[in-house]
Amino acid sequence: MRGRTIEELRDRVNGSVITPEDEDYEEARKVYNAMIDRHPRVVVRCTQAGDVTAAVDFARENELAVAVRGGGHSVPGFGTADDAVVADLSGMRDVTVDPERRTARAEGGATWGLFNDATHAHGLATTGGIVSTTGIGGLTLGGGIGYLARGVGLSCDNLISAEMVTAEGRSIMASAKENEDLFWAIRGGGGNFGVVTSFEYRLHPIPEIYGGPMFFELDQARNLLEFYRDYIKDAPEEMGGFPAFQIAPPLPFIPEDRHGDKFAIFVACWAGPIDQGERALAPLHDLAPVVAEHVGPMPYPALNSAFDALYPPGLQHYWKANFVTELNDEAIDAHVDHGPQVPVLQSTVHIYPVNGACHRVAPDATAFAYREANFATVIAGMWPDPTQNEENIKWVRDYYEATAPLSEEGGYINFMSGDDQDRIRSNYKGNYERLVEVKRKYDPDNMFRLNQNIKP
Ligand SMILES: Cc1cc2nc3c(=O)[nH]c(=O)nc-3n(C[C@H](O)[C@H](O)[C@H](O)COP(=O)(O)OP(=O)(O)OC[C@H]3O[C@@H](n4cnc5c(N)ncnc54)[C@H](O)[C@@H]3O)c2cc1C
Questions:
Q1: For residue 440, how far is its CA from the centre of ligand 1 (angstroms)?
Q2: Across 135-143, average pLDDT
Q3: Cross-strand bridge partners of residue 383
């Protein structure tokens, strides 16, 4: 038996082992969503793969669950749990780029900010999240939707290999050549199958993009959504971005007397030749007068961190999600009813396009099953004041109730809340049974159950 006691665990771990008796425990048990208030048995701040193995061994020997924490952004707070062993990978964030091969290897706790900065230094990029503090770990394993998805696929579609620690404490590689079943499952199946200590990605030459947010009057919301659903079907694949409902933050490019007003916005990202950017965005400019915009050429990481300040750690989060194949008139009616009721500055709804390159991967080629869906909608309730929980959760739920019947049965696992576990099967459609098989093989005791859980 290895590492049954906390003392033995401390002996094995190069990073730190934090228990309720330790001063930094209060900080160590926290995650990004301040609504989550859990007391793990121990937090292992890992600095190398061996620390992850030690944490997993300790959990197995003591029959505890492992909460894997990469960037900590999970809305249901899966990176912490009562009585669990937290494998905190925030000390494992190195990113190494091979510009010749156009690949990058990143440790399991890296954030998109660190990743994008490292790849941008070589004029390269791959699909990542739209906020730079989000972890590559959770985002990639659940699929990975971002500005570049129409052009180069989901984050998981750009995954070449992953080094993993299994529930048995074994270090293994998952790729198209090794443990192919596991490689299939981790591309959309979330953190169900083990801890990824490093990810290897395919990169693309995307040094700069042309884009940014454009604010339209709220009475143009229907016009914008109708335009978007048709336009994005066959828009050039270099075109990314999404419509949203948004309260105007106090930013210099927005007229001061409009700060705090509600808008229909479009956040554009043209990842093709920069000199074609203005022309690419012309249909949006022609749509309706733009009240305010911050649009132009910029480094790709600049757009990917443009919203960071709006979303600091410590907000309350409650989200709901759906995949949508046809954004029909009824669905647009529901958005136009509920979007403008957005209660606070940080809350929003985004309707991401997931067509283009995402559609070129067969639904059973990776665990991410919704390859025919055209849109992934997230109704993201985010607010600072816990006394406003009821009002904000109600906005999300009412919005969801109105749009869910007009959507696919499943949604994107990374945009869901903790009360969405009953949707797991539908999120994976035809891939669910195969995921259960892989789960039985690699984690039969469900040690990795703190996630949108696939039960063995
Ligand atoms: C502000 C914000 C913006 C977002 N934007 C986007 C976006 O643009 N696109 C998008 O697709 N999603 C987005 N998301 C959702 C995001 O994909 C999920 O919240 C995801 O879980 C975050 O990953 P993380 O590593 O930061 O989270 P964590 O809370 O650290 O991890 C969540 C879960 O993922 C698994 N996991 C994480 N790392 C590993 C690892 N190394 N090995 C094994 N399992 C691991 C574990 O099950 C873990 O519990 C956003 C979330 C937030 C809060």
A1: 23
A2: 98
A3: 316
